[in-house]
Amino acid sequence: MRTFRLLPLFLLSFAFYSVAQSASSPKPGPGFSVDNIDKSVDPCVDFYQYACGNWLKRSEIPADQAEWESFSELDESNRLIEKGILEKAAAGGANRDPIDQKIGDLYGSCMDEKGVEARGLTPLKPELDRIAAVKDKAALIDELAHLRLVGGASLFSFYASPDLHNADQVIAYIDQGGLSLPDRDYYIKDDSDKVEVRKHFAEYVTELFTLAGQTAQQAGASAQTVLMVETLLAADSMDRTRRRDPRNRDHKMSREEAIALAPDFNLNHYFTGVGAPNFTALNVGNPDYFKRVDGVISTLPLESLKVYVSWHVMRAAAPWLSHPFVEANFKMRQALTGQPQIQDRWKRCVGLVDQSLGEALGQRYVELTFGAEGKQRMLKMVDALENSLDSDIHGLAWMSDETKKQAKLKLEAIRNKIGYPDVWRDYSSVVIKPGDLMGNIQRANEFEAKRQVAKIDKPLDRKEWGMTPPEVNAYYSGSYNEIVFPAGILQPPFFDKTMDDAVNFGGIGIVIGHELTHGFDDQGRKYDPHGNLRDWWTEQDGKEFETRVSCIADEYSNFVAVDNMKLNGRLTLGENTADNGGARIALAALERLIAEDKTSKEGQSIDGFTPEQRFFLGFGRVWCEKQRPEYIRQQVTTNPHSPGKYRVNGTVQNMPEFQKAWGCKSGQPMVAENACHVW
Asked: Per-residue pLDDT tens for 435-485?
């Protein structure tokens, strides 16, 4: 749900140490306030500017941020809570319980900057020496399997996930991967921003190989080798828009058939090396990609492949090595996002613990921040939103009764996960040692890699979470048919117990509605109530749906994000559909609540605004944001969410309910001439 939250694979090596704001938060605060409104703007001309104008005037992007928004504000406050937990755990001594020992010692080893500087490249030398000692391509496959476990994966991705056609069963998946830059377009397109990023990338690779001991000439040649290999891989990587359709990634085949796609890349050897069970079938996300991998393995010299693999080991480790590596890593981040300053080390270290031992840290976070009362309030709102979506589906004029019946079955089957898992992950086997940062990272990576591999050919654990409790986010999963709301997001401005229902329904209510609607967007609608990829629509209803979402895709494709760069309406289609549907069903739920309790004060105006107006103001406040131009360009290429301005204006201009609430007239910008309406 979060705008630009899930970063591409390349940025995973930045995401936990360079995306947070500086210690001093800008004003105003994260909560809802009418002081954020710019009343000099007509809400029917530009509602986003009206709702956020004064916030935009008073807010600044902190130097260590690429953007500043509600999520960033909550990230900062949550990070401070986590810092207090970790500092206490790190100082606790020998009598700590196992959870505090692990999270405390991992944090302490990360904060030991003097020790990290003294060790330089030494912690990574064993891995680089292993690669250097590889004598043939068969041995290189062994090394790739080893690196998959300790955290230096390359060439392709291997993971466990529910079978697309039998969601109760987990199977193995192989898919494209192996790229360092955020998207395939950075390798194959010659737009000026892509060319500039490739230049910075070559400089970054050169710098890391130089720091690893190569001469300037050798390092430059190594950088060109890495760029050459990744450009070859990018050529057959499926673009993001096509990958949004799960049917384009549905290629279940026998183990033998998958191996035949890349005979020179001994997948059997690889599967054994990562400790996978002797499975007989798997899904291949992009068969063409593996034919390309086979060509790369068979035609390129061993030394070129070793350079490429060494690069991925250094790339993953660079943020946790000595200062020159960290600085080189951050310079690449700057080129992609325009962020002027790296975040403080403690913030990077909090992020590392959340990434590596998230449900251990999450237990302590939940104890301090989220109780049974919060969970019950959220469940009540979810129930109200589900009832609202049920009514919406029932009343659709364009959908047949047959499809409505199936949609109702799916809605009733959606599972709700609120706050934190019912069963916490067991990290008892992870060895965390004081003063051994790289070793701790590798052992945590190996624990998680083996945990994932062990799921293959086993029943799906539907209790598992895909986010940690402190995360400021939410999600819907088609395979699980569930919505998930970590405790981290259940705070102002999304949810504020001191605020009226109208503001809260405009905040967390729309978020709930958004996630529920994902079950029925252009991706989610392809999954049935149990999470299987199955078409449960009549042919005519399917055509009607596609016509309606095409309206949204075309509408958003005309929005300009920065300079002359427009949004990709097909890439952002699912999120835009969920925003539009979520807002409608949240408002309907609010109005039903007001109608059912006529003695409540919730139906009264506050600060001169009606409940409906405050609902939309609450919605606008959630998406007030500032972003650096470089970051916007990157996100338009890679992210399925629209910028905040268009999440707000793109939604309200399609809503007669908004136009009624604010008295907008035909022809005004917030009144779409041909309004789009799916849910």
From this structure: 999 999 999 999 999 999 999 999 999 999 999 999 999 999 999 999 999
**Calpha distance 189→633 (Å, rounded):** 14
Tokens of 147: 């690196």
Inter-CA distances, 426 with 3, 201, 274, Å: 31, 39, 21
Per-residue model confidence as pLDDT tens digits over 19-39: 223 333 334 457 899 999 999
Number of Cβ within 10 Å of residue 458's Cβ equals 12
Q: Report residue 441: phi and psi, to 5°.
A: -60, -45
Q: Which residues are catalytic?
A: 515, 579
Q: What angle do CA 152, 477, 4 make, to 5 degrees?
A: 60
The length of the chain in residues reads 679
3-class secondary structure for 478-510?
Answer: CCCCEEEEEHHHCCCCCCCCCCCHHHHHHHHHH
Residue pair 618/582 in contact by the 8 Å Cβ criterion = no
Closest CA to 171 of 462, 452, 477, 457: 457
Place of tokens 């004598």: 135
Q: What gap in Å lies between CA 493 and CA 74, rounded to an integer? A: 9
pTM: 0.92
Dihedrals phi, psi of 281, to nearest 5 degrees: -140, 155
d(CA 87, CA 149): 29
Phi then psi for 594, rounded to 5 degrees?
-65, -40
Cα atoms found within 13 Å of the Cα of residue 455, Cβ hemisphere only: 23
d(CA 545, CA 106): 50
DSSP summary character for residue 431 = -
- For residue 28, is the peptide bond before it cis, meaning its omega torsion is within 30 degrees of 0? yes
- Between CA 281 and CA 283 the distance in angstroms is 7
Q: Is 27 helix (H, G, I), strand (E, B) or coil?
A: coil
